[in-house]
Amino acid sequence: MKNTVILCVYFVFSFMLASCKKTPASNDYTVCVNKFVGTGGNGRVTPVASVPFGMMQLGADTRPSGSGYHYDDSTILGFSHLHKSGGGCADFQDILFMPLPGGIVTDTIQEIRPLQFQSVFSHDSEMATPGYYKIDLYDGTLSVELTASRRCGMQRYTYQNAKNKSVLVDLEYGSQCACTIQPAHDVDTVYSSFIEQVDAHTIRGYRKSNGWAYHQQIYFYTTFSTPIRSTAFYVDNLPVKEKKSVCGENVKMLVNFEDNKNELVIKTAISGVDMEGARQNWLAEADGNDFEKTRTEASRDWNKVLSQIEVRTTDAKKKELFYTSLHNVMLYPMLSSDVDNRFRGPDEQVHQTDGFDYYGAVIGLWDTFRAACPLTAVLHPDIMLDYVKTALEHYKYAGQLPIWTLAGMETYQMIGIHSMPLITNCFMNGIKDFDTKQALEAMVHSSMKDTCGYSMGYFVGLKNYKKYGYVPCDLEMEATARTLEYAFDDEATARFASLTGETETAVLFHQRAQNYRNVIDPETHLARGRDSKGGWRTPFHPLRSEHRKDDYCEGNAWQWTFFVPHDVEGLAAIMGGKQALEARLDSLFTKSSAVHGYDVSGDISGLIGQYAHGNEPGHHTIYMYNKVGAPHKAQGYVHRVLNTLYDNTPEGICGNEDTGQMSAWYVFSSLGFYPMNPVSGQYELGTPSFEKAVIHLPSGRDFSIKAEGLSEQNYLVESVWLNGVKLERTYITFQELLAGGELVFKMEQAPADKNK
């Protein structure tokens, strides 16, 4: 049986590769996207039907945890309308629809238990492309297809038995195993839910719950192509007779149809504001649109996004990985405002923008400030302008810039305040049409708050960081990692202040950015916990990890020591010079990959020595070799990661996709450069994966990248030429890329000892 499954997966992915080879003739880049990459292992990708940056992620659920879908599962639980594909900490899975087998009689159902209705499925009948998903249920007697617009999802059910069609709408169901800011609370506890029949074709309702965010609200408005014959409501799993609507913590509804048509189309719009907002979203995006038109428009929208970067290669696998990665990045930021620009803010109140889109549904900046946001800033400055405005609007109602939001609510879950590099990177990419004075005010205010919020059992903030110049390990958990990230955010604030002419603020925060020095032990040359009396934590175990309970965050001393992307020269000086730092980097990649501890963080994955590519804090580290005069080592390890830690299989992502960051590293690095420090204005050069790539910039200019002599053996760089001029440096600037032009890598063969 196992061999049969492996063979099936092989043929499916071989077919996708063959389709990708046809791309140049058809100019349809969607055929190069493999939506099942990362759906296995711990990638937490789900093959949702969606459009770029949309609110709607409609998809099949195989489990009420993780992203809701895992390639190894064998049953479909239903189709929910809100997902967080690729999230480390997952949530959502709200508003579940599950069609029952055709011909079933529901009149005698006296109890509906949780997940009572499921269907075995086979990947043989499964298909997913950007904006579309299909699966056969109940031994092939029912086909389910999904597609989406920005705020609406459409389901099309095709039955072999056209009579007695029934659909379960389950408002109890939601993610039951994710993160919560208060461990005493169950994840996804429903506070209140409501559902009613509006007319012969329409139902509507809402679901209010806690989860990773302590208060989530989702409203929906649904129409059916076939008139409703009857409905049955269930509260606490038991039937409630003679009702047109019900409200409670555990609400379900059976919607029954009877006609001779073998097709049922369901259109559902969602809103975080209210049911009327959902209805207006439906009128704007679903009314008058049929399934095929919506599917075609979704595919068109994806192709427009994907075609912004054109890669040329004879390696179909690399091309598929590239466009799959680009697709994953462009799922986020995630829209949360309605067509009338209303949104629910972090204060739980309804507000309205002055015309921009509010992207507060998922703000995962701990991951995405590194490369995903910088990539989107290059390709979609309009989206990132609205993202910056979203951050400033969040500040208006929450009193601080976003840390990590879900459903518009602040979770405070991860460390640092990475709105600072978000805003600065956008500004450095020419995205400036926002209130820069308000932005700097928000950055400074957020950097000075004694208390930010409540997370992991205690109040977090910058009181101790400001007092001691570091976060003492006897006063806060993850203290060393917090110090390093606050210091980097301080440099981001300093750069923004400098760029906007606020010199005094720039000097203050540049000085604070040197606080990283206070947690680098000059004897061990490792980042180390330091207590409030100034002493180093003893005993010291550099390879130890206790998940979310030690001095680091999802890592250990070796992995966190190098999180100083803003001052590599300063870090080198502490260690005794650039050669000493180079040797330290060598040790990182050549040490044993063993990690010790009773509760080792599962995020420490994708290991080369102690370098953990499966988690974001180390994503810049390889490129630090450029700064110590060893670019060939950077090139060697970039090549190794690209070719060994990414694959076009369900297990093809070596860690959580983390809302696009893992994929953004692949996109940038395979092009030949990476924003090692996203507020430096520079991209560090690596090694390209393609003979040629062209970035079609929104300005109308093109930036071309060529790799002359590239082969599997020729992956080291002999020289780099920008617009015909040989570069005597290991970077290009943001402005050089945005101006358009041509970057030429002249490749050479890698001697056996050059990557040692």
UniProtKB/TrEMBL annotation:
<dbReference type="GO" id="GO:0000224">
    <property type="term" value="F:peptide-N4-(N-acetyl-beta-glucosaminyl)asparagine amidase activity"/>
</dbReference>
<dbReference type="InterPro" id="IPR041371">
    <property type="entry name" value="GH92_N"/>
</dbReference>
<dbReference type="Pfam" id="PF07971">
    <property type="entry name" value="Glyco_hydro_92"/>
</dbReference>
<feature type="domain" description="Glycosyl hydrolase family 92 N-terminal">
    <location>
        <begin position="33"/>
        <end position="271"/>
    </location>
</feature>
<dbReference type="InterPro" id="IPR012939">
    <property type="entry name" value="Glyco_hydro_92"/>
</dbReference>
<dbReference type="GO" id="GO:0030246">
    <property type="term" value="F:carbohydrate binding"/>
</dbReference>
<keyword id="KW-0732">Signal</keyword>
<dbReference type="InterPro" id="IPR008928">
    <property type="entry name" value="6-hairpin_glycosidase_sf"/>
</dbReference>
<keyword id="KW-0106">Calcium</keyword>
<protein>
    <submittedName>
        <fullName>Glycoside hydrolase family 92 protein</fullName>
    </submittedName>
</protein>
<feature type="signal peptide">
    <location>
        <begin position="1"/>
        <end position="18"/>
    </location>
</feature>
<keyword id="KW-0378">Hydrolase</keyword>
<dbReference type="GO" id="GO:0005975">
    <property type="term" value="P:carbohydrate metabolic process"/>
</dbReference>
<dbReference type="GO" id="GO:0006516">
    <property type="term" value="P:glycoprotein catabolic process"/>
</dbReference>
<dbReference type="InterPro" id="IPR014718">
    <property type="entry name" value="GH-type_carb-bd"/>
</dbReference>
<dbReference type="Pfam" id="PF17678">
    <property type="entry name" value="Glyco_hydro_92N"/>
</dbReference>
<dbReference type="InterPro" id="IPR050883">
    <property type="entry name" value="PNGase"/>
</dbReference>
<dbReference type="InterPro" id="IPR005887">
    <property type="entry name" value="GH92_a_mannosidase_put"/>
</dbReference>
<feature type="domain" description="Glycosyl hydrolase family 92">
    <location>
        <begin position="277"/>
        <end position="748"/>
    </location>
</feature>
<comment type="subunit">
    <text>Monomer.</text>
</comment>
<dbReference type="GO" id="GO:0005829">
    <property type="term" value="C:cytosol"/>
</dbReference>
